[in-house]
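Changelog-adjacent note: as of this version, every example in the card shows the full chain rather than a window. The one below runs 466 residues end to end.
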Amino acid sequence: MASLPPGTSPGPGAHPHPAPRHPRLDPLADRYAARTHGMKTSEIRALFSVVSRPEVVSLAGGMPAVTALPLDAVGSMIGELVTGMGAQTLQYGSGQGDPRLRERICDVMALEGITDASPSEVVVTVGSQQGLDLVTRVFCDPGDVILAEGPSYVGALGVFEAAQARVRHVTMDDDGLVPEALEQALLECRAAGDRVKFLYTVPNFHNPAGVTLSEPRRQAVMEIADRYDLLVIEDNPYGLLGFDREPMRALRARDDQRVIYLGSFSKTFSPGLRVGWVLAPLAVREKLVLATEAQVLCPPSLTQYAVARYLDTQPWREQIKLFTELYRERRDATLESLEALMPAGTTWTHPDGGFYVWLKLPHGLDAKLMQPRAVNAHVAYVPGIGFYADGSGREHMRLSYCYPEPDQIREGVRRLARVVEAELELHATFDAVDTGTFRAVRGGTQVPGVDPFVGPANSDRYGDRG
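Full-length structure tokens:
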């Protein structure tokens, strides 16, 4: 194929080969699909090597407290499964998932008001992450728009980016997604000729914001969805982990055709088993099963049988209550420590369930740039920038209280507060100096606009970012 002259672009329908990237480092760099260009490590995965160090208090990862499970009973249960049902549990299974497990999933969803679900509408997935990936594959073409809360779950943003979809964030506050902002986004997308494929939302104990969509807003969101013919993807891994009330009625309980529901046992049983599900109308279910078979052939049989046996034989409702009491204690330790230790100008959400607090730093501080200083002080968090598709959120961070013990949480917040205070002092020092008047002297020559204390590469390190 002849190359194009400089400054010209291919005609309609043409697919130019992506430009080679670092061919010296990777001889296959010029062969990758265009959709790989934006792939990058998430802010959370980038911290794995740090948070595994014993001296670091991690307020970063959303790891459930699996040690609170009756591990002896669970271990015996899984051993008996293999011994007594090895021919089934170690064999291939259905692409849709084990029928018995799908029945029990319907029982679990009934706790959130979904009483009309049929096992035939359930597709078992390798965690709800695979479910979200399947739904996105089925519905989204490159360039399509997905509406999502700002901030949004980082794993969802990775899925949408891989699908080459465009994310438009919708404002949220302490009561969750703002319906007026949703409608405004729909109107603006319509005016721009954008194809909005669905709204992605985490309505309960949001990851990362920790807030819950209020009952009046749930009704308002569904009315807007009906008015604009909008599909809703309801991602609900935390819905049963409320501290102060019974589970709220799911969006799916209000509309069985417009809402596709994603669920998971990672937070209420075990993330290591990687069992989730999608509840979808039958026509969508068929496509999800086909996509599953093309992707993984079938979900693992052993883990499905393990979850089904757990739901059949163990007091799982009581176990969820135990989890919620444990997480409530850790939430309280987090909020009390933040209140006692954080400097003025710091604000945070007050979750009544789930795993996360969303913290906003005092004006002008940058959580991403502050992160190395925090790691040096042996405390880890996730910078807010990772939860936005548009580079927003630099003044925010996500704190997770689900995994550390309360005393560790208090120590972690103490370390973090000292880092924030030091950053404020340094920020105030540089704000007190008119950096625009500095002239760096190099060999006797003054260089305009360069701060000699910071240098050209980092001259905005302590600037007022707003």
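Structural remarks: The longest strand covers residues 166-173.
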